[in-house]
Amino acid sequence: EVQLVESGGGLIQPGGSLRLSCAASGFSVSSNYMNWVRQAPGKGLEWVSVIYTGGKTYYSRSMRGRFIISRDDSKNTLYLQMNSLRADDTAVYYCARSLFSDSGTYLAFWGQGTLVTVSS
Amino acid sequence: QSVLTQPPSVSGAPGQWVTISCTGGTSNIGAGYDVHWYQQLPRSAPKLLIFGNVNRPSGVPDRFSGSKSGTSASLDITGLQAEDEADYYCQSYDASLSASVFGGGTKLTVL
Lengths: 120, 111
Hints:
The complex is a heterodimer of chains A (120) and B (111). Chain A is mainly beta and 120 residues long. In chain A, 0% of the residues lie in helices and 56% in strands. In chain A, strand 9 (91-101) and strand 10 form a beta hairpin. Helices cover 0% and strands 44% of the residues of chain B. Chain B has strands spanning 9-12, 18-23, 36-40, 47-50, 64-69, 72-77, 86-94, 99-102, 106-110. In chain B, strands 1, 3, 4, 7, 8 and 9 form a 6-stranded mixed β-sheet that branches. Chain B has a 3-stranded antiparallel β-sheet with strand order 2-6-5, with no helix packed on it. The radius of gyration of chain B is 13 Å and the shape is globular. The chains are: A mainly beta (120), B mainly beta (111). Chains A and B meet through strand 5, strand 9 and strand 10 of A and strand 3, strand 7 and strand 8 of B.
């Protein structure tokens, strides 16, 4: 059974750093495209980042340069290192596994999310 | 401002039909990239509803159907039920951004 369990969220001051983890089971993160998606309180879904099987990474423009996606294949875990955090980074962060459609990828499996609150 | 545009809300009575639109542009839906739909029940993580424009994952009722034409896509829900009350999001890929993109979401209210 595919499972994704996020952790690492919490309260952090503006300008601080936080690392989120997403422990996967039932499949290999190294063999899949893995994503982070966030949702600010009362707002819609916002795609954050993806890491491809070969290690290539892409980011949403608003997070490029501040966030770093990575994975540890030996731990079957996905990470999101978040630096220079701002109040508008406050959100529930979800990790999600992509699968392929004919022309694109979709987020087939989602974790339960971890809440990050940026506030002084 | 989302790259994909959805109506903020739709509503319908039990048993009725509603449609949710998702309008993009020439760098995403119009470029041939697939559209996918997600359902988010209150206080829950999103769940895949439709993938590849028209396909339902196992377990999704056939009351839910998707379509795509040109730079737009639609999610149709027939025979509305109370448990369909949720937020619905479309998603595609945008080549000019090299990024996955979501619609702003549509809140479905079952009257």
